Amino acid sequence: MIPLGRDWLVRTRQHLTELLRSMPRPRWDRALSALSGHGPWPRILLAGAALAMISWYLLWGPARVTSQQKVLFEVLPGQSSGVIARNLKEQGLIRSSLGFRLLVKMTGSATRLKAGEYELAPKQTAHSILGHLLSGRVKSYPFTIPEGYTARQIRDLLASRGYIDAERFDQLLREVPFTHDFLPAHNPPAAAKGFQPSRLEGFLFPATYSYVKGMSEERIIRMMLDSFAKLFTQEMRDRAAELNMSIHQVVTLASIIEREAMVDVERPIISSVFHNRLRLGWKLDSCATVNYILQKPNALLTTVDTQIDSPYNTYRYAGLPPGPIGNPGLKSIMAALYPAQTDFHYFVAKNDGTGAHDFSRTFEEHLRKQALYQGR
After folding, report:
1. Is the pTM higher than 0.70?
2. Long-range contacts of 358-365 (CB under 8 A, 24+ apart)
3. Residue 188 has what DSSP assignment?
4. What residues does 212 pair with on adjacent strands?
5. How many CB atoms within 10 Å of residue 332?
6. Which helix (H) or strand (E) holds 116?
7. Largest Cα–Cα distance of the chain, in whole Å?
8. Which of 258, 239, 274 is nearest to 201 (CA)?
9. How far apart are CA 254 and CA 249, in angstroms?
């Protein structure tokens, strides 16, 4: 029992009197008179109010009022409110598991607590914490897919953070029939021995996303495909038709531009080189396509590399490869749709640390620039 001395009662009565006086309502006049009077009732009323406040605090008040700590708390699917209350108490987030269970019962929210991972604080009241668990405001983790990443690189990135099971992710890329209309019906032919590209390659749009604990691999893939679907507007579809290209062909070309271009302003110019060569029926001679076969970046390809027999080797086969060699960003997609108007057919890296290229109209001019920049 907490002792209630006369001094404590006097101070409490003074505080309550000031509070009541600050509320200009005539109906409080009698209550003020009663509290300022004599006899046992003022003490009984104040003691009851104090007991109610103490009870509220012990049952539902903050576990630690001054704490700035954040605690990750997980509610598992199907978990009972009793187990949740016990776990909250064990993690120092509530003062009383009994109080939390009573609160859940009084609010009729036992079946409405949402599973997920929450970021909670010990300075929250039990009511505030319950509000979080009812709202489903779960903790999210942002992640960014860099432009040009292949499906394999995306898989490795997500697996390294523990967001996916790599084997399950690969299986979904190969087998699950995603139904977006821009996707090819089948996986493209093998790029190299033991390397089967996914039909989703090119359409896992590079952007920043939010991961929520427990999110499935299929949902993550759908999230990226949906981003591409929103990005590739009807106007862009109409432009592809003007170029007599399918969406798949546009994305395939954009993926090559993404890998070749290091400077944004050059993307439409590099696109013009490839468009010019395609129009003439030439081979694209893109190092990026060979690197896709090799699955590792080589700044300078060898003659053996350029002779690899693969439909993705644009040094051996004319036209576009069977599919994208990565997942291009919006700038490269727009460059593929809207190339600059040039008569360039070649480009070579300047190797000056800027990532810039020099462009040529003729093969003889190109050879001279190769010798200048690359010592060939």
Report:
1. yes
2. 359/269, 359/273
3. P
4. 140
5. 29
6. strand 116-120
7. 112
8. 258
9. 8
Question: What's phi and psi for 347, nearest 5 deg?
Answer: -150, 155
Q: At what angle do helices 166-175 and 151-160 cross, to 10 degrees?
A: 150
- DSSP 3-state of 367: helix
| Mean pLDDT (the chain, rounded) | 85
Location of structure tokens 């644009």: 314
pLDDT exceeds 80 at position 176: no
Structure tokens at 183: 């996707």
Which has more confidence, 71 or 159?
159
pLDDT digits (tens, 9 = 90+) for 116-162: 898 888 888 888 888 888 888 899 999 999 999 999 999 999 999 99
Question: Which tens digit of pLDDT belongs to each residue from 321-368?
Answer: 999 999 999 999 999 999 999 999 999 999 888 989 999 999 999 999
Q: Are 262 and 147 in contact (CB under 8 A)?
A: no
